[in-house]
Q: What sequence folds into this?
């Protein structure tokens, strides 16, 4: 079952199963999300990026969990391990508060710092996989799961899933055995989508999958590495410039405010208190990375996946692919899959993520400028893209098709256009002969061997002439009838 069907099921489900009080009107069509993180260096960097994109989401919780890499200890029998404390989240929100007035001048919808602070809760942090305690974080997740609001609830696992598991277990303990339990469990399984980064504790396999077998998991087990510590081994050489020190210094680290001053990079001389085993910050380390090279945002794909403002429509169906990777169906939902890397002409498990790295870095660089630009005209803003014929089209084999793309730019920048076929996302096994020459329109003939139900994904790409150069896309899906 595809994610679009999940969304539709959640929207039309009429059974009143809220146990958290009267349903409140849901005022936003933004993705409803809960961030669950464990305080690693890359979580910190992902959280900084997340704050610059906070206007794109209906944020319902920011929850601190443990993982196999970080836990707080219990003050008695369990000692802390690489524990970075819980204060840094509010410190980052305080620094976001300094940027907030400027960010609002460039885009609407940014949450107030007070709102973000109210959403921050400490979950199950005393040990790896600990889910016996009911915590403030688990109660928040439980309440948001049970809230009678439309649309999916995306729970992002940047660390372990133990606090989410505790929330689900609390629901199970309260309602299993009642007459309403089967319908409640079914509705929750339709509503909740977990985006899992690696398996950072045992609770997914030991509790969630056995007890909630129909809960959908978008499982990123390998693609995230291309945006994490080992990126030099994964990102094509032609794209690595967007992660190297000169780009990082110019676009993020210098002159972009106090929040980005906290952004960690390789060998930057900025230790992470408590995480003494992570020595990548030490300038004297004999590492292949230069000072201020990108270090890691391995958790960012979980929210990049939901940024449908870019026109890639990735959240409609994980098989489509986008800034948060591309996935193939499996027994639990979806697992990350491969795209063909044009540099090697071979299937590459990380290329569904790395193909976008320059675009998403430029997009973040523009938002970094927003935070320090009090005037709209002093920063770049994304162009717009649309296709006259629509984005979901039915076509017949042998038929000639012409598509008319359109672009506009709020800053008046000159625009360039590109059409391309995302063959890895297609179910049709072949390439179109596209008539393109840097124009906004394309023509092609639907292949004669295309059969009923085949899909072909075309991406219309608009790039502005601003600094940094920004893109918007429009994905058009052709379905053969």
A:
């Amino acid at each position: 079952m595809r994610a679009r069907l999940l969304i539709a099921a959640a929207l039309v489900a009429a059974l009143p199963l809220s146990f958290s009080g009267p349903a409140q009107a849901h005022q936003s069509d933004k993705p409803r999300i809960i961030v669950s993180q464990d305080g690693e260096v890359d979580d910190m960097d992902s959280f900084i990026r997340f704050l610059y994109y906070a206007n794109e989401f209906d944020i319902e919780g920011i929850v601190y969990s443990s993982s196999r890499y970080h836990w707080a200890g219990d003050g008695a029998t369990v000692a802390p391990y690489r524990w970075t404390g819980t204060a840094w989240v509010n410190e980052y929100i305080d620094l976001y508060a300094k940027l907030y007035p400027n960010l609002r001048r460039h885009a609407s919808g940014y949450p107030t710092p007070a709102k973000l602070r109210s959403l921050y809760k400490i979950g199950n942090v005393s040990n790896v996989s600990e889910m016996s305690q009911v915590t403030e974080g688990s109660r928040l997740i439980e309440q948001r799961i049970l809230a009678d609001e439309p649309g999916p609830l995306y729970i992002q696992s940047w660390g372990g899933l133990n606090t989410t598991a505790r929330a689900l277990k609390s629901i199970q303990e309260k309602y299993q055995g009642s007459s309403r339990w089967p319908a409640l469990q079914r509705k929750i399984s339709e509503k909740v989508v977990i985006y899992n980064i690696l398996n950072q504790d045992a609770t997914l396999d030991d509790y969630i999958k056995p007890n909630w077998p129909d809960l959908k998991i978008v499982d990123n087990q390998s693609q995230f590495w291309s945006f994490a510590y080992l990126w030099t081994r994964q990102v094509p050489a032609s794209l690595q410039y967007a992660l190297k020190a000169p780009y990082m210094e110019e676009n993020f680290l210098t002159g972009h405010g106090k929040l980005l001053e906290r952004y960690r990079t390789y060998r930057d001389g900025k230790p992470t208190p408590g995480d003494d085993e992570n020595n990548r910050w030490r300038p004297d380390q004999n590492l292949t990375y230069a000072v201020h090279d990108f270090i890691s945002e391995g958790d960012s794909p979980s929210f990049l996946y939901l940024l449908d403002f870019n026109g890639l429509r990735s959240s409609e169906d994980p098989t489509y692919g986008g800034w948060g990777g591309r996935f193939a169906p499996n027994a639990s939902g979806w697992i990350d899959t491969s795209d063909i890397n044009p540099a090697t002409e071979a299937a590459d498990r990380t290329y569904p993520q790395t193909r976008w790295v320059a675009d998403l870095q430029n997009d973040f660089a523009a938002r970094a400028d927003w935070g320090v630009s009090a005037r709209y005209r002093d920063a770049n803003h994304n162009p717009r893209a649309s296709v006259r014929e629509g984005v979901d089209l039915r076509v017949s084999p042998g038929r000639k098709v012409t598509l008319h793309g359109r672009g506009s730019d709020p800053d008046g920048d000159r625009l360039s256009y590109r059409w391309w076929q995302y063959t890895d996302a297609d179910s049709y096994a072949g390439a179109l002969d596209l008539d393109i020459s840097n124009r906004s329109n394309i023509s092609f003939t639907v292949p004669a061997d295309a059969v009923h139900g085949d899909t072909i994904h075309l991406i219309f790409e608009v790039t502005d002439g601003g600094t940094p150069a920004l893109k918007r896309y429009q994905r058009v899906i052709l379905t053969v009838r």
